Every structure is written in structure tokens, then in C-alpha cells.
Amino acid sequence: MDRFELPATDKTPHVVLDPATGRFELSGSSIHENADRFYAPIFDRLKEYLARPFRTTTVRVSLIYFNSSSAKYLLDLLMLLDDQHAAGTTKVVLEWCFAEDDLDMREAGQDYQGLLDMPVKLVPRPV
Asked: How many Cα atoms are found within 13 Å in the side-chain-facing hemisphere of 5?
């Protein structure tokens, strides 16, 4: 599988899935109106990667903002990874990055931390 990358726009995050290093990153904003159309190819690529994953998969989420429809797809992506972690297919670690003064994004990370079995590291960024 080749490296997969989508550039960021005003409404969609920058996405990188690098199977050679086991790195999956989402950064920027996720406020698109048709979340299904945006996230469908990401799901497809992630499933393709998980058929032959790197031994450790590092997921780095560094979103500034995401809307409720994006939250649902983000959870679905993370649950797919969490299932693979639980099955032992790949060791998955989630790094949830947020600005130090952004309590909403910190709480979102804590919410995902409570829902997932894989390790979730909350990573504050200086403002």
C-alpha cells in the first residue's frame, strides 16, 4: 500500500496515512457539510492498511475544531483502530493534541480516552 495524503482545506483536515512508518494523522479543522463523502475514502485506505499493518500504529489527532458529524466519523475511525489493537494485529497509540487553553478539545480527548481501550496520550501544545 502506498502512502495516502489529503491536503487540508478550510473545512477539511490534513490527512496522512503512511504504512511504511505506521503513522496516521489528522490535523486542522473538520467542519465539512458532507462528512460521509470526505471520510469514506479514509476508511477504505485505513481498512487496506489494517489488513497488513505496521507493528505499531501511531494515531496523531491535532484538530483545532470538529463538528458533530465529524465527531461521529472520528469515533468510527478510532473504534476500527481500537478493535485492531484489542485483537493484537497492531499496537495502536492515540496522541490527542490540543492547545493548552482549549478546554473543549481537551475534554474531547478525555471523552475518547474513556471510550477506547488503546492508550490515549493527551498532548497539550503551547498557545
From this structure: 4
